[in-house]
Every structure is written in C-alpha cells, then in structure tokens.
Amino acid sequence: MGAPPQLTPEQRSAALLKAAQSRKRRAEIKIKIKNGEYSIDAVLELAQSDEAVAKMRVRELLEALSGVGKIRAGALMEKLNISATRRIAGLGRHQIKELRSEFMKSSHAVRPGKLIVLSGPGGVGKSTVAALLRKSGDFWVSVSATTRSPRNNELNGIDYFFISNDEFDRRVKEDEFLEWAEFAGNKYGTPSVEVLDALARGENVLLEIEIDGAKQVKSHLPQAILVFLEPPSWEELVARLEGRGTDDPERRAHRLELAQEELAAASFFDHVIVNDAVERVVTQLISFTS
Ligand code: 5GP
Known about the structure:
About 50% of the residues lie in helices and about 15% in strands. It is of the alpha/beta class.
C-alpha cells in the first residue's frame, strides 16, 4: 500500500465533514431499521445508490433488525461466510441473495416471536444465562414481579419489579400475570401484557422462571418451548447454592431441599440442557428460535 495522499487543510476538513455526514446518515438508517420502517431488502437496495449506506458494516445492519442480536448476527455471518468487518458494498451477489432469503419471511409480515421458558433448580445458573441473552439483544427478556426483598446487587425494574404482597395479590386478582408461583416463601409472577406485546412485535421472548410457572405457561400458550437447565452434577449444584453469600443458612437448606424436588421435573420439559458451558447453553437457546 502506498503512502496516503497529502491533503490540503480545506480538503481535510471537507473529508471530515463528509465522514461525519455519512455516519449521521447511517445512524438514521439504523433507527429506521429498528423501528421496522426499513426492511433488510430496502437497505440493500438503498446501498446501490447511497454511498453512506453502502459503507455500513453488515454486522451493524443485522444487529439493527428486530430480534437479531450480536450472537445471532455473528452466527448468520459465519454461515454466509461474511467476514466480521465486511461492509454492505463488499458483499458478493451470492451473499446478498442469501441474506435476502434469510429474512424474506420476516420482512413481509411480522412473524410472532418464539417463547422460550428457561427453568431448572435454583442455583443452576438460569439468571446468568438470561443476563447474557439480554445483553446480546437476541431475546426480549421478561422482568418478573416479586414480593422478595432485593439482594445487594439487584435493581428495581432491571432484575425484578419488587412489589408488596398486597400489590402482588391485587395483580393476581386483576389477572395481570401470565403465570405466578410461590417459591421459598415469596411470590413471583410474569407480567402478561408485556410478554404478549413483545411476541406480537416478532421478538423472541425469554422467561426465566421456576418449574410450576413453566407448566402454567405451557397450559396457556402451548407453543411455548420449555427448556430445563440441569447442573453438571448434584455436587456442583450444592457448591453453587452454598457459595451464595446472599441467603442465610436456613434459607440455603430450604433451597437445597427444593432443588432436589425441582430436578425431578426435567421430564416434563421439551428440552434438557446441561449447564456445563454457559456459551453453549446460550447458542442452543438461540437455535430453538429458528
Ligand atoms: P430468586 O429469588 O433466586 O431470584 O428466584 C427464585 C426462583 O424464582 C428462581 O427459580 C427463578 O427462576 C424463579 N422466578 C423468577 N421470576 C419468576 C416468575 O415470574 N415466575 C415464576 N414462576 N418463577 C420465577
């Protein structure tokens, strides 16, 4: 590669202005994709005549699409042999065709999202999996309501909606929960409207709930995919539960007892996954949505 051309100060500021305008244009397009105003087809078409759009990275385009997060985008690019830094302009004809057909179904009519219910004994690592999936953007992860008090590191509205017992009972009476259950002396419930709305928008939804709740979801929404997360061994589960500094000894003993009962429920579930590597669990959950 030769040395870059020497620019005059005027040429340099014109180039910087153009780059800033291009970035702004790409940001606008990404918002339109996120809002569902532009389909992948529309953006690929636009890139033929709009230089700023042509320079958008394929990864950015995919991650802006509803229901596609970092993990799914990465997997798709690998499948279609598109390198991580490729821009739209650099796509081959074959790759464009394949990308179009991947998204054909979802760009014309909104396909309802898939509902995955992740369950399993306390301490098996469900919340770590759910947090990863939320961060990746591949799932809309439901936030439950609970009467339990927040643990040190927990935030209202993020980890749970922490509500009073009276408020919980009122919501049960008003039929505001898709399911609810009591667990270790506290009540937990999945807000119904938010979940159904997300599914209708075409988002894949993840519920991270205990076993009774999972069974209730299946009876209301038989299309739900029930996934049971199993520990690699009983010893590993005990170690994890005992290592939790957040519960007092009596509570921990009770949770161990519960875990024993919970492990027996695996056969009710559509899939059983052993949580020996969290990345593998995440990839498997994503594969259930296609
Ligand atoms: P923790 O108190 O450890 O956060 O959660 C205790 C148990 O309640 C876990 O098994 C968790 O998956 C479950 N859980 C959390 N939210 C809900 C919910 O909305 N409904 C039901 N049925 N269980 C939940």
